[in-house]
Specification:
This protein is mainly alpha-helical. The protein contains seven helices and two strands. α1 runs antiparallel to α2 and α3 packs antiparallel against α6.
């Protein structure tokens, strides 16, 4: 039986849910009115072992599928595309920093303010607060650099979308083969 990588991801999620839903009861209760204590203990042990066996079968199926997906990801080039997407995400983060940075003030404006500070008479406010009010805050990014970053962001986002489209196509078109034991486990669980 063959399934595509997209279906394999969905099945893996369902297998994880099934594994978590299996209750492994480690105790049984008996009272003074229990007629067959040995029978209750034997039944409890049987259910315990069945639950563990079910979890084991599900885990084997999960990791067989996971291994097959891993091989398919390498062979189809998906791993390379995922690495490229992460690189683009890192570049997008850098360009976003530039694009959203405070723009640098004009040097003429800064110099004019400095001259104004120097020419202002010393007053009580300066004595109370020191040079705190004589500072000029300015961004360091030029308008040109910010505009270039915004333009680059558009390109990077378009490239990322193209890679996402290619990734989707590969996930739909790349098939893996399920082994017979895996197929049987999935059928017993109603997952295929």
């Amino acid at each position: 039986m063959q399934i595509n990588l997209r279906k394999a991801a969905a099945i893996q999620a369902e297998i994880r849910k099934a594994i978590n839903s299996v209750k492994v009861e480690q105790t049984v209760s008996v009272t003074e009115f229990t007629a067959d204590v040995e029978g209750v203990l034997s039944k409890g042990e049987l259910e315990f072992n069945r639950a563990l066996e079910r979890k084991e079968d599900l885990n084997k199926a999960l990791f067989r599928i996971r291994a097959a997906v891993g091989r398919a990801n390498v062979e189809s080039g998906i791993n390379d595309i995922l690495a490229d997407i992460q690189l683009l995400d890192a570049q997008i983060a850098i360009e976003n920093t530039i694009a959203s940075a405070q723009v640098r003030k004009d040097v003429t404006e800064i110099n004019a303010r400095i001259v104004k500070f120097k020419q202002a008479p010393s007053n009580d406010r300066l004595a109370l607060y020191g040079d705190r009010y004589n500072n000029i805050e300015s961004g360091v990014v030029s308008e040109a650099a910010q505009a270039a970053a915004k333009a680059e962001l558009k390109i990077l986002k378009r490239d990322r979308q193209g890679l996402n489209d290619k990734l989707l196509q590969l996930n739909v078109n790349t098939l893996i083969q399920l082994s017979d034991p895996t197929k049987l486990t999935l059928q017993e669980e109603g997952l295929v």
